[in-house]
Amino acid sequence: MNGFLEKVTSINNVINSAVWGLPGLILLIGTGVLLTFGTKFFQISRLGHWWKKTIASVFKKDNNTTQNTDKKAISQVQALCAALAATIGTGNIAGVAAAIVTGGPGAVFWMWVAAFFGMMTNFSENILGIYFRRKNSSGEWSGGPMYYLKDGLGKRYGKKWLKPIANVLAVLFACFAILASFGIGNMAQINKIVLNMDSAFFSGASLGTIPGTEIDIIHLIIGICLLVVAALIILGGLRRIARFAEIVVPFMAVVYVIGSLIIFGINISAVGDMFKSIFKFAFQPAAFLGGGIGVLIKNTMTQGFKRGVFSNEAGLGSSVMVHSSSNVREPVKQGMWGIFEVFFDTFVVCTMTAVVVLSTGYIDLSTGAPVAGVNGDTLVSEAFGQCFGQVGTWFVAIAMLFFAFTTVLGWSQYGSKAVEYLFGDKGVKVYKVIFVAMIVSGAVMEGGLAWDLSDTFNGLMMIPNLIGVVALFPLVLKITKNYIDRKINNKNVAPIISYDPEIQSELEKELDQD
Fold first, then answer.
1. What is the dihedral of CA 135, 137, 143, 145, to 10 degrees?
2. Which of 164-173, 175-184, 418-427, 448-457 has the lowest mean pLDDT?
3. Which domains does the chain have, with CATH numbers?
């Protein structure tokens, strides 16, 4: 068995290095750069507009971003929260800390760069998701990379040889999404929850193991509790997941940001050195990494890019499957919610983690090296504990619980939509039962290999998705220009809403509601 696991690990390392190595990250960031220039830096040039149409609209009376009369869809804010539920997870806390420990403070700068260009990647994905979505047999919206690969890439250019390739890419994406949902979206998150809860609340306590096994009884009990709660939410469908996310995600994110800002205030004297180290080590290797430019590229840039992408998922095509279930009519409007999603996930939540890590003395800001004995997995917990005592440690454990658990809920929807594409509605019911059952497996398993395999499948989703996004880049520009002409420049032109003439006609009649 050990020999088999070693072989799997070896093969996975090769694939992982290819997917998440420099070529893969260049493809990912390059796509964001292409889309940013193509849309004339929409995330900056139209900042006031997309801010007004997204988060600012939530606070207006009689807005339609939080309201929803369609029982087969979710509101725009619910779609955002469900997507954030899946993206705000362990990567925003332990992941950012690990990136700094591994790549130095400069990794934070490259994380910001990835997010800046990722805004437009997510924007474009959501536009394509809304444009190519359709109603399933239950009357619910279904969309995602598999649809814009099949019906966009496969038909748009009128090449017969392209259609089978597009179909294969769509199937591959769906398969990778299902595998990733079981791994990074389920067992790996649950494993991290259990380990953090055990460390924070049951440290030193033990109920032993199940006779004849190495399964920790405390881990099993926590896993069963999580299974029950998850089953009640996941088996209730997307609307129940969205309602839960709409309550939990904003609350936990705001509380986490406030706690981080308090730590920032306590350590305000370190602010100058902190930001200086971020920019300094972004362009030169941290002392503990060595002096070669190759080490800088491999460790600092790669860690920052990878962590940014891992956190906000821009380019993976995953969150599109939730955004496509929104009651929105305008593709560009949901695209703008995608911009805000990346902004909040990385520039707010991930940055707060970086502030906590860099301002509390666990990283030597003059050399970029972590203090002896620092562990990236527990660094944020230790930093909060330093400022708030045991309560701080408990808070981080609870934050990880909610962030990781909502990630599980969000990924259950991703996997459901991928299964629906491959096997139809009946397959979704079977998938959800298996998905929920595997929560216990995540609670009692060893997490190392599972995380590595999950990371690989997560990255493999990126390749077919980005092929579709780049190939349909002209269509994204056309839809965006159409929106700007109508909504900003007040030109009297026909809207571009859907690839399907029937859906186009139906939604045109409802367009005034947007």
1. -140
2. 448-457
3. 2-513 (1.20.1740)
Higher pLDDT, 281 or 38: 38
142's enclosing H/E stretch is strand 141-142
Q: Is residue 19 classed as helix, strand or coil in its secondary structure?
A: helix
Phi first, then psi: give them for residue 90, nearest 5 degrees. Answer: -60, -25
DSSP H or E segment with residue 76 = helix 76-87
| pTM of the model as a whole | 0.85
Rounded to the nearest angstrom, the gap between the alpha carbon of residue 334 and the centroid of all alpha carbons in its chain is 16
CB atoms closer than 10 angstroms to residue 1: 5
Among 139, 496, 134, CA closest to 330: 496
Distances (CA, A) of 310 to 114, 357, 431, 448, 451: 10, 19, 24, 17, 12
Residue 444 CA to residue 290 CA, distance in Å, equals 38
Q: Which residues contact 233 (CB under 8 A, 6 or more apart)?
A: 240, 241, 244, 409
414, 89 contact by CB (below 8 A): no
Asked whether the predicted pLDDT for residue 209 surpasses 80, the reply is no
* 227-275 confidence digits (pLDDT tens): 888 888 888 777 787 778 778 877 888 888 888 889 888 888 888 888 8
DSSP 3-state assignment of 134? strand
pLDDT of residue 295: 46
Rg (CA), the chain: 22
CA 123, 125, 128, 130 dihedral sign is negative
The CA distance from 463 to 467, in Å, is: 6
Burial class (CB in 10 A: 0-12, 13-18, 19+), 171: middle
